[in-house]
Design goal:
With 249 residues, the chain is α/β, with parallel strands linked by helices. 29% of the residues lie in helices and 31% in strands.
Length: 249
Amino acid sequence: MLPGYEVFCTRDAYGLIRVLEDGPYRTLCFDSYGEQSAVDLTVPHRLVFDYTQAMILGLCFVERPRHVTLFGLGGGSLVNSLLRFSDSLRLRVVELRPAVVEVAHEWMGLERSDRLETIIDDARHYVESKPIRSDLLFVDLFDDEGALSFVYDEQFLLGCRGCLTPNGVLVLNLWEQHKGDHPSARRALWEVFGDGCVFCPLENGNLIAYAVNQGPIVLNHRRLVAKARPLVYKLDINLNQCLSRLREA
């Protein structure tokens, strides 16, 4: 049972979209009542879930990013954090469900900005359309069973790589029913990115993957801690645990 009470509910062609409220927190849920996204309305740019905090570490693997693409909007917490982090970042969100975009703006505190572009499309179709290349690509597409199976399909990962600038980074949420390992996804990432991959296993079972377009990648924790300081300061989050969990493939 999720905390809070329902403040909004709607249905689109894909099912229910619900918003629950518990004090300053709002949670976005779909059909099964599983948490899709959460926001603290008093500080909308602060990431609530550990896995989103781990995903934002992708910024530490890119030098001076200018353009970011996100597959899957949810409640928009990553978008708000990215907009807050840098005034020069331009963002593109690819979201399948128009209703999710509306709910995120109206109920989840998603900022409206001329630096944010929203495209209604299936991520699989989008990667085949030869879009503009991004310095960072966040993929956060999952249901109650875990990451959608096509997310770790080799062809989809190749399409994602084609969406990246030469030194761009792919960041994947590979949640799989709290198992936290996901060997099939690791194998697929190795086939596409080789030794350009780093992983962050989290206590709740999420596995976050970072794949550099032009590897290899070598972890330098001292350098990463230094690069994470602006994130800690601007986004009001503690990233020590995420940094300590980073592992090379």
